[in-house]
Amino acid sequence: MSFLGHVVRFIVAALVLMVTSWIVPMFSVGGFWSALLLALVIALFGWIVEGLFGKRVTPFGRGIVGFLISALVIYVAQFFVGGVSVSVIGALLAALVIGLIDLFIPVATPYEAGRSNTSK
After folding, report:
1. Is the pLDDT reported for residue 37 higher than 90?
2. How far apart are alpha carbons 14 and 105 in whole angstroms?
3. Where are the alpha helices (DSSP H) in the chain?
4. Which end of the chain is more exposed for a tag (fewer CB within 10 A), N or C?
């Protein structure tokens, strides 16, 4: 993925986080810049979790474990980004809403994009 592709991906992720904060109670994002920084922190934490535990345990994985890890990553990320407030229930609901939005607007991770190009 090119640099511009990554920029667009993070902008879309920030917009998704802002929409999620509008829908989900107990999940608030202060503004676009907080949402953009939150998207970067979530991506970084997801990358770290994937490196430590493998693809099946990451927020990008499917199933209940991926869902719970996604909620945990969202919850922990609030401590690294100003203007973000999340409760445990808010993180669970946000993970659910983000997962549902991802069904309609899928964004491949750089890892997945690289795998699909090499399998052709």
Report:
1. yes
2. 13
3. 3-23, 32-53, 64-77, 88-104, 110-118
4. C
